[in-house]
Task: structure prediction
Amino acid sequence: MAKKVIPRVITYLFLIIAVVVSLFPFYFMFVSATNTNHEILAAPPTLMFGSSLMSNLATLSKKIDCVRVFINSLFVSVTFTALVILIDSMAGYALVKYQFKGRGIFFAVIMMTMMIPMEAMYIPLFTLMTNIGWANSYQAVILPPLANAFGIFLMRQNFIAFPTAMLEAARLDGCNEFQIFGRIVMPNMKPALGALGIYMFMSVWNSFMWPLIILSTKDMYTFPVALSMLEGNQWRRDYGVIMLMASITTLPIMAIFLIFQKQFVAGIMGGAIKE
Amino acid sequence: MSTQTATSKETNAQTRPPKPKAGFFSHFKLSIKTAPYYFLLPAILVFGAFMVYPVISSLILSFQTFDMGEYSFVALDNYKTLMGDPIFWQALGNTCIYLIIQVPAMVVLSLTFATLLDQKFLKGRTLFRMSLFLPSITALVAYALIFKLLFNTEYGMINYMLSMFGVDKIDWLNTAWGARFTIIAGITWRWTGYNMIIMIAGLQAIPLELYESADIDGAGAWKKFWYITVPMMKSIILFVSITSTIGTLQMFDESFILTNGGPDNATITVGHYLYNSGFRYFKFGYAAAISYVLVLVIGILSFLQFKFTNGGED
Result:
């Protein structure tokens, strides 16, 4: 009996320590959002919730229009996610369920672009956006990341299992190809679309480098950019305010994760495991 | 390109619907032959504008310099300068440090967590898994700021805890190895849960019979892990290692926020150096050359991964 108990205790102990390390920074962030700079930078650092949440919020509101940032982030993320779901599922569907000239080449090109880092494209994209007058605009943030091979690959993998007989039946019933896709295929793919959607929503909500490059005025900032700007002068850094903003940035994604965690995990697993 | 193939393909489609007159526009009529091109059209447009165009434009740019608002052709000068640029080599060297220290640590941790979470006796599995995964959803900027505060020299939590064990204050963010350690701690915290999920998916694909027959042979947990789990997970481990290495090559948010690449470029990455060259010093041609070297290195790594995983799997 003892032989079994000890490894189990060690397993639990190890996992509990890991969970504490995982969650402590979140706890510290939330706690610090309710404390003053003075309390955060005390020795020992304050680890209990304080009473300065409202005053931190007031200071934050003076520096950044949080509602505006929230609207920017939400608009960019929702639009991007809707477009990426549509584009990727259409492309993935075409690559699996149709025989056509160029299919192999098209798929090969898409897979090859997976190796090209987004950073490699930022210089020409910046010049392009500036030249067509799109610098500092929503479309400049939303459009370039749409060229996303991962989503097409993920949807392709999911369409492989979709029964072709259902498509044939719909054709016999007189549906045209768009109707088949819109009325029969998409409604049956909700789990896969959910996984893709949540994954993409999160990646764009958190994206930093491209928005930092292309956005130049406060009224256009998304959360990560606004948060990085808040840091400012290191001698007058107000950590309570910074941690409050970090909390506001993190909370919506946390909520989405807790609600949709199953689909979310499916999205990551789908990308790693090949057929 | 796509429209050309679409039209040439259309001639076959004519035979299907019995339409007597075939005008020019009937080539584009929706049918089972034309539909795939319509479905692919948005992807083609997006990839053309935001992938193919920048990739080509970047290549041309890498043979030019941008000075006083004017571009001039300089052949391979940018690449030659780059090969003699100590900061660039430092950036590649930093990625090697992460490859040697951080990647193995994270692989061992994520495989260990995945294996432990896979134990039958474990209660509260979902709760453990969700908690360990939670760091992976945090915005990089947000967690970098939290770590910056935790690793603060004078007032940080880490130094306070160390002081309880009698360790003197460590200047984490302003010494080369301190800053590297902070970044390593940060990315390990952020990505271990993510890789753990991938490992769990891999573990579930291992046939249970292997473990059952090992049980009959009386193999212990450690032997089963070492002789069944690890060999069966070889390709997943490689996948995680290479994607993580590619990630550290491109890493920007952490080094930008936490250490700003410093001190003395001790934590700069290729991605961060590319940003500095392009958007701080506006050396567009030079930055484009860096991006092409980045593409090349990532291409080699991806090729290695592809080659070895195909060998590892059936």
In short: Confidence is low (pLDDT under 50) at residues 1-15 of chain B. The CA atoms of residues 124 and 156 of chain B lie 33 Å apart. The longest helix of chain B spans residues 86-117. The longest strand of chain B covers residues 64-67.
